[in-house]
Design brief:
Number of helices: 13
Order of helices and strands: HHEHEHEHEHHEEHHHEEHHHEEE
Structural class: alpha/beta
Helix content: 40-55%
Number of strands: 11
Length: about 350
């Protein structure tokens, strides 16, 4: 981004806009790792709250994953800055054995769990996270590379829900470079995680491609705008799914769902697919099914319906059965374990 934009100060009006969602909460936990984005979140949120006569109480937590020797010292630096600002602070530890593979995903899940537990402990009903415009662009590319559907390509939302808490992301329209310039202008130090450049992981590899993609027009603002447009389409589809659910479902109980098959398959494929996925996720034992597997099931059911053939399939621990004009979804029966052959005592 241009140097003038990167160094532009955050005005009172802009801070009010960034943190407007904070006013819906009485107490907010700020997740601060010590990196530039989260350090800027803490300082800007503190500036915003100090300038107001009303607003939420702010507290800070830092998760020490214990994956680098420097992490504890970096967390302690956050604590020192919190004491200067007068913000309550707590260090949270990811204890226990760490996985040999998928370490970044596991660390991310552990971080959310630790933050959620601490937020509930202090009476906060929201956690603020410092994801930036650059993070949003990376998320779009990351999910696109993994074959995500529209919900995934809508990327991160300014306000979302997880574990009974609101997750607030006020910086999704703010470039990282501007937050770095803000801290440097205030003379505030921050940590740099070497893992952010580790080419063993997908996100750093995508980050390294950013200049090449930007040269072709796929810069962070354009990718983020794409996510906004997808989110708009996603909201419209979700509303259409709600309407179709009332029309297509003949029965919906705790242990089964029964669709009117002609009405279901008269819907646009995206609508009927989502209705099917929702009931499989609700009634199965394995959570939401993989999109590609759900698409194959939906296609098989539709072909069978058009040919007036029965069809029975399982997916994600759910049993889906088409017979005539009825399509039912229930929990799948437990798979029978193969009997272990008894050892023979006869001499060989």
């Amino acid at each position: 981004m241009p140097a003038a934009e990167a160094s532009a100060p955050f005005t009172l009006r802009e801070r009010d806009h960034l943190f407007r969602a904070f006013l819906n909460h009485d107490r907010i936990l700020l997740a601060v790792s010590g990196g530039p984005d989260s350090t800027a979140l803490m300082v800007l949120a503190h500036d915003w709250r100090t300038a107001r006569a009303d607003g939420p109480a702010l507290e800070v937590a830092t998760v020490d994953h214990g994956l680098r020797p420097e992490s504890r010292a970096e967390a302690a630096e956050v604590g020192a800055l919190c004491r200067r600002l007068g913000l309550p602070w707590e260090m949270l530890h990811w204890a226990g054995e760490k996985p040999a593979t998928g370490i970044q995903e596991a660390a991310r899940a552990a971080r959310y769990d630790l933050l959620a537990d601490h937020a509930r402990r202090i009476g906060a009903d929201a956690v603020a996270l410092a994801h930036t415009l650059d993070d949003q662009a990376e998320t779009v590319l990351f999910r696109l590379a993994r074959g995500s559907g529209l919900p995934g390509l809508a990327a991160m939302k300014p306000v979302s829900r997880r574990s009974g808490l609101d997750l607030l992301r006020p910086f999704l329209d703010v470039p990282k470079a501007r937050l770095v310039a803000f801290l440097e202008g205030r003379g505030l130090a921050f940590a740099r995680d070497p893992g952010n450049g580790d080419a063993r992981f997908a996100r750093p590899r995508l980050r390294a491609l950013a200049p090449l993609l930007a040269a072709e027009g796929l810069d962070a603002p354009r990718l983020a705008r794409f996510a906004e447009r997808v989110a708009r389409v996603e909201a419209a589809i979700a509303a259409a799914v709600d309407v179709a659910r009332h029309a297509c479902l003949k029965a919906r109980e705790d242990d089964h769902a029964l669709f009117d098959a002609p009405l279901l398959f008269a819907q646009p494929d995206e609508i009927s697919l989502r209705l099917l996925i929702a009931e499989v996720a609700r009634l199965g034992t394995e959570g939401a099914p993989e999109l590609a597997k759900a698409e194959r099931l939906h296609a098989a059911l539709k072909v069978a319906f058009m040919a007036r053939n029965p069809c029975t399939r399982t997916l994600a621990g759910a049993l889906v059965r088409l017979k005539g004009h009825a399509l039912s979804v229930t929990g799948a029966p437990e798979r029978r374990k193969k009997p272990v052959p008894l050892a023979s005592n006869s001499p060989r």
